[in-house]
Design a protein that fits this description.
CATH class of the largest domain: Mainly Alpha
CATH superfamily of the largest domain: Cytochrome c-like domain
Largest sheet: 5 strands, antiparallel
Structural class: alpha+beta
Number of helices: 11
Strand order of the largest sheet: 4-3-2-1-5
Strand content: 5-15%
Radius of gyration: 22 Å
Distance between the termini: 59 Å
Number of strands: 5
Order of helices and strands: HHEEHEEHHEHHHHHH
CATH topology of the largest domain: Cytochrome Bc1 Complex, Chain D, domain 2
Length: 316
């Protein structure tokens, strides 16, 4: 009798849990899928790439197969001056964000313009592509849309990347992988609430900001500041670099762990990083034996630190 009651209770609990998951996960997805993507949502999806978690192309969460973002001020093919334009570079073999092969994700207006004017259906992963975001009109209303600049302007990934310096390239999509992999969302949210958060962290996001983004990384339990607009509140790469290497360098009583291992073995100049020496000098500084803390090494272009900083500064 007791065992039978246990089975009934377990099944009822499973039904309740399944129902709550349906409400919290599936039903909101119906709302998101019925809303057109905002310009911010389009730009996020293009800079993040296809998936921000475990995937076949990046099983170890190393930031592989992600697009690169660059700010162009000259036409990479002709050299002529153009209005500052963010270009999203998908090198050959890099998986496209989901809205390119499945444009219905973009929503009414954005989908039609992206296909008709943007020619995104002509993009091929094997060949790579360069995308930019434009604004057009559909049924008398303004919408953002994706332009396949490889088809419309003959901008190929190699041409665009060769026209800019390495320091001008942002690895935002790879940086989001670092954010997810290290569990940053356990303490930081990317979701200001419609309360006093407006005054502190900035405006809450809109539904259309998340089309094609997987996962959303909303966060779980906020123990530290919301980061959705952090790039607007603090755009200093130097501050971010010190903060990630050792948060106590900029916030004395911070409970955030160090992420100095994100630097790897060598700095931007190819020199070996002596972590033991740095920590010894830092300990001397905290004891008052040094006036200044030791300098934080510049992260190498291919380091996890560089990627994470690019992602954080993109959150505006």
């Amino acid at each position: 009798m007791a065992f039978r009651e246990y089975k009934i209770g377990a099944r009822m609990f499973g039904l309740a849990l399944g129902g709550s998951m349906m409400i919290t996960l599936y039903m909101p997805s119906l709302d998101i899928s019925s809303v057109g993507s905002t310009e911010y949502g389009v730009r996020k999806s293009l800079s993040f790439g296809r998936v921000g978690g475990f995937s076949l192309e990046d099983p170890f969460l190393r930031g592989w197969s992600k697009p690169k973002t660059v700010l162009l001020k000259k036409d990479p093919r002709t050299g002529a001056s153009i209005d500052p334009t963010y270009a999203y570079i998908y090198e050959p073999g890099t998986r496209f964000t989901s809205s390119i092969p499945h444009p219905r994700i973009l929503g009414t207006g954005v989908e039609e313009l992206s296909l008709e004017k943007g020619r995104i259906n002509e993009a091929r992963e094997a060949e790579g592509a360069v995308f930019v975001v434009q604004e057009g009109r559909f049924d008398g209303k303004k919408y953002p849309y994706i332009e396949n600049a490889t088809a419309t302007r003959s901008w190929t990934p190699d041409v665009v990347l060769s026209s800019v310096k390495e320091s001008d390239i942002q690895k935002i999509g790879s940086g989001k992988i670092m954010f997810v992999r290290e569990g940053c969302w356990w303490c930081h949210t990317l979701l200001p609430e419609e309360t006093q958060d407006w005054q502190v962290f900035g405006a809450p996001p809109a539904l259309g900001d998340f089309n094609s983004e997987t996962p959303t990384a909303f966060g779980s339990d906020r123990k530290a500041p919301d980061l959705l607009h952090i790039g607007s509140r603090n755009s200093s790469k130097e501050w971010m670099m010190m903060h990630f290497f050792n948060p106590r360098l900029v916030q004395l009583h911070s409970i955030m762990p160090r992420f100095d291992y994100f630097w790897g073995e060598k700095d931007a100049g190819g020199n070996r990083i002596d972590y033991g020496k740095w920590r010894a000098e830092y300990a001397s500084y905290t004891r008052g034996e040094r006036v200044y803390p030791p300098d934080v090494p510049q992260p190498a272009p291919d380091s996890d630190a560089r990627m994470l900083i690019d992602f954080i500064l993109s959150l505006k």
